[in-house]
Amino acid sequence: MGWLITGISKIINENGFFILSTPNKKWPRGTNPYHISEMNLQEAVDLLKKHFEILDIYYQTKTESYLRYLDLFDIYIRIVSSKFFQIGEKFRLFMGRNRLFPIPNSFSAKPLSGDYKITPLSQEDNNQEVYIFVCQGYKS
Asked: Of 1, 4, 60, 95, which one has the fewest beta carbons inside 10 Å?
């Protein structure tokens, strides 16, 4: 990751801004295809301070409504995936009836605009899921 930050710092002038988000590698999660590296808070601060002035640090969390939606979506998937439900659905289709519930697709649980909130990071609050850094280039 250091090579990327070094390269970016070379092309950003002193008035330029650089925004970086990184999942906290301390949080359990699967592979995240949108991030080439994951760092904890201290690793990210140490790396960025070598090349930029860190103006602000934020953290990103899921909103309460999105967490409730994910819980409901999980219940829905469990119901639709159950053998008992699938037998009933096959019978309904056999009888020429419509499905009771549509089959969910991979986009059903994708977050939308407004599903996340961004909050300034306080000193005591250093174990968040995702960090966002707002940096400015140093004078050459």
From this structure: 95
Confidence of residue 46 (pLDDT cuts 50, 70, 90): very high
Q: What are 9-25's pLDDT values in tens digits?
A: 999 988 899 999 888 88
> At the topology level of CATH, where does 1-62+118-140 sit?
Rossmann fold (3.40.50)
Domain with CATH 3.40.50.150 in the chain: 1-62+118-140
Q: Is 38 helix (H, G, I), strand (E, B) or coil?
A: coil
Distances (CA, A) of 118 to 66, 70, 115, 128: 14, 19, 10, 11
Instruction: Determine the Cα–Cα distance for residues 24 and 108; give it in Å rounded to an integer.
Output: 25
Q: How many CB atoms lie within 10 A of CB 111?
A: 12
